[in-house]
Amino acid sequence: MFSLCRAAITGISLGQRYGDGGSDGDTTAPSAPGQPTAGTVTANTVALTWTAATDNVGVTAYEVLRNGSVVATVSATSYTATGLTASTAYTFSVRARDAAGNVSAASAGRSVTTSSGGGNTDAGCTATYKTLTSWAGGFQAEVTVRNTGTAAGSAWTVNWTFPAGTTVGSLWNGVAGTPAVTVRNAAHNGALAAGASTTFGFVGNGSSTTSAPISCSLS
């Protein structure tokens, strides 16, 4: 009884007195991430990237939503959805989570339709990245695209992600996309017979890199 009266007199709540139910923790949710951008789209996969969310303490993870349901939690600002159905429309959005468990509003949705799946299944593809020369603040690189399959292909796409601060400047023998680097064949070099190869090159801005994780698709 004495403890209850003393708490009432001093104006200290029981929660404050015994440490329960305090409200000093982080309750600020991160901002919504940027709308996802679709990179390479196949019959069964979609590569997504988005701009980072901001938070008063720090974003620790991103939840990827497909048609409104969470399908993955990642720490990076990119994700490749797999196991999709050919010729099907999906809507992807992203929300951010911080260390305290606060969750942002979802980003704007991105609607993507997977391809028909009728591509050339006998065509394979490899891409080899090589830095040719470098200088302060820039470099020149070349990528060789090779058909490793048993049938001819008519179009290719190459994807990779540079470290922060490195970008593609001028490009030849290809058409580049952003924000992750996506290069598609030019009109004159898309067709590759089995075993054949072609190259494209570019001048990069930023620090040179001797290699980059790179993927290739041929149809």
What topology does this entry show?
Blueprint: H1 2-10, H2 14-18, E1 37-41, E2 46-49, E3 59-66, E4 69-74, E5 78-81, E6 89-98, E7 110-113, E8 125-135, E9 138-147, E10 156-160, E11 167-172, E12 174-177, E13 181-185, E14 197-205, E15 214-218
Antiparallel strand pairs: 1-2, 2-5, 3-4, 3-6, 6-7, 8-9, 9-14, 10-13, 10-15, 11-14, 12-13
Written description of the protein model:
- It comes from Actinoplanes italicus.
- InterPro entries: CBD2, CBM2/CBM3_carb-bd_dom_sf, CBM2_carb-bd_dom_sf, FN3_dom, FN3_sf, Ig-like_fold.
- One of its GO terms (biological process) is polysaccharide catabolic process.
- By secondary structure, the chain is mostly beta strands.
- The chain folds into two domains: 77 residues, Immunoglobulins (Immunoglobulin-like, Sandwich), CATH 2.60.40.10; 94 residues, Immunoglobulin-like (Sandwich).
- It is built from two helices and 15 strands.
- The strands form four sheets. Strands 4-3-6-7 form a four-stranded antiparallel sheet, with no helix packed on it. Strands 8-9-14-11 form a four-stranded antiparallel sheet, with no helix packed on it. Strands 12-13-10-15 form a four-stranded antiparallel sheet, with no helix packed on it.
- The longest helix has 9 residues.
- It is flat, with a radius of gyration of 25 Å.
- The N terminus is likely disordered.
Short description:
The chain has 219 residues and is mostly beta strands. 6% of the residues lie in helices and 44% in strands.
